[in-house]
User: Fold these one by one.
Assistant:
Number 1:
Amino acid sequence: MTSAQGVYESLLRRAEQDPNVVGLVLGGSRGKRALVTPASDYDVYLVVLEDPDTYRRGWTHPRGHPLDIAVFSLEELRAHAAVGSRSEWNRYTFTHVEPELDKLGGELGAIVRDKGALPPETARERAGEELDGYLNAYYRCLKNARLGLAPAAQLDAAESLPPLLVALFAMEGRVRPFNKYLTWELEHHPLAPAFCAAELLVPRLRSIVATGDLPEQQALFHDVEETARGHGLGEVVDGWGPDVAAMRGDA
């Protein structure tokens, strides 16, 4: 047993014995049981019924400690990483994670599972918005390439990929993974389109970031367009009018 593991297990026992602590969620690599190394820390979300500030003073550690503990009341946890909140960026933390301790009869687990996905009404809206963001950056890349502005075109190509990934995952009601987990996510929890297989999509993304290669981007757009139309998002693509032909490489 490593010293960090021992400290974590002591914390878990302490949480089990404290009646004001109602749950503990382990995030990060250790929570997902993915990409764990001996250097992986323990990202702990401690949930209490009352007086979270006292627990923040008494249970947390300075940055750099192998246990990174964040304390929440139950209502604070409900609000954390909510859609539209400033902390929504952290939503993927709760994907493929179950509480290590849940004294609420499964309520905490339900909260965690809800955070690890997108509500249906949000998913469709997010997919459309981010698909449009991808098309915008891709169009700017094409335009700058025609003007001979290679650095600008390459940067636009790279900037097109984050919204594309958000859109592809949102089409299936899912949260875009942190970059660290993208390959793992595609391998262990694949997206439906064949072109999204990890061994196909990840090298393609890396090539576009590294080179801004236009034929590679056009081939990617063909796959994205087919997928978007299959999810009823054809109007987003069609909103780009005559520029769609250039995106396809037909003009």
Note: Residues 3-115 form a domain with the Beta Polymerase; domain 2 fold (CATH 3.30.460.10).
Number 2:
Amino acid sequence: MQNNTKRILVVDDDLEILELLKAILLREGYMVVCAPNSTEMRHALQKWKIDLVLLDVMLGYESGIDVCQELRENNNVPLLLISAIGSDKYRIKGFNAGADDYITKPFNIKLLTARVAAVLRRSKRSASIEYRTKDINFEFLGWQLNSNRQELTNPQNVQIFLSNGEYKLLTALLLNAPAPLTREELAEHLSNENEPITNGVSLSANQSRAIDVQIGRLRQKIEADAKLPKHIKTVRGQGYFFATQVTRVN
């Protein structure tokens, strides 16, 4: 498998696991950079163009969840969390912090490499969808979304950072406002090159919850009160719609 154009950053304080993951990924044809802690991770992100981060949830005295959340404040790099804790509570924490996927230890090597490839494919497809909306900018109640720069600014002209997933969800809702979108349609927009959005297959409970978590993060950023949203409304049992009037600016 020829993946030598993709560079993966592996972050784990367990040196044996670090070497194991490195060997697995090198065998798959990826370039690999290793970091035993978040400090070395930041140095690597500054030095290299990283296509994917594999981050352990337990980093000694550090929380991988906190590191993930901090990274998401200024970086859109795809991120896959690895953890010995497989409970839904921790999975939700991981997605809420901005992770793109979550896999538990001990992991099946074939499953791990498949999940890595899937996250990288989704990242590649996202670039294609962004191109399709590149010349469309949006305004709503003083907010502005610039699709060329993928920048959101609030009515006070302060830039609000969006993760790649949050940007794709907001774009989908704005493009289709005020029509409601199901969770399947939102998931399809995140992972499928084809436009317009079409009905996808049914999602699992965890996949539906992942969409809800990302919508919750987006509400935290654009709503005055995320518990009483004015922009992104819920259609009970179905999905979401953007209730505020949207203006397209080409």
Note: Confidence is low (pLDDT under 50) at residues 192-201.
Number 3:
Amino acid sequence: MERWHNRVAVVTGASSGIGAAIVKYLANNGMIVVGLARRVERIEALRNAVAAEARKRIHAIGCNICNEHEVIAAFKEIASKYGPVAVLVNNAGIVRNSTLLADGNTQDIRDIIETNILGVVYATREAFRAMKAHGGDGHVFLMNSIAGHQVPILGKISMSIYAPTKHAVTALTEVYRQEFNNERSKVKITSLSPGFVETEIVTPHMRDSLKDFSRLHADDVADALIYCLQTPPHVQIHELTIKPLGELF
């Protein structure tokens, strides 16, 4: 991790779950970490969960990742206060109980698409611009899912529009790889696709229905991200799938 020491990492959806775990891991490994979320107080509270010398490296900015203007403003603030972005973790993502056939589901569908796809596009555009302007290297992570490669059959639980948005993330990963190459940059792109992770994104209904399923913890995903960051500059892990032992799909 020496390559990334004292460089800036941005984590979206940083207030809980996988995002919060990644903030802690990056700070403990020497990076300056800026968490983006609406619940900034929860990001600030993460300082109490890292090594004493790492606390000063955790910062929080309030941002609704679905709002393009807020994303642009957040990256401008990051550049002015903390320096150029070297690592971006597109972690923000949501799921809803609604099905595609449910009456009155339009807002749920729109929220998922805007968070899981457009939020990634806004943040990656702004981060890449900073990376290219300051040496052309960096690493962008897209938090994907096994549902981005196949649609799990979960009994009567519908993956709704969530699975299609994660399939879009799989496609975005390859499109970004090609565009980064076309820009002659040294920026890496990695899709992280975990299986069932026990986090706040899991609704009570899903948790009850899947109570017998094997599951990962947020720290497992954060640990995998650190592994990817430690690869040599010429090595790019394009896709990393992480499943709990005994997963049924």
Note: The two ends are 33 Å apart (CA to CA).
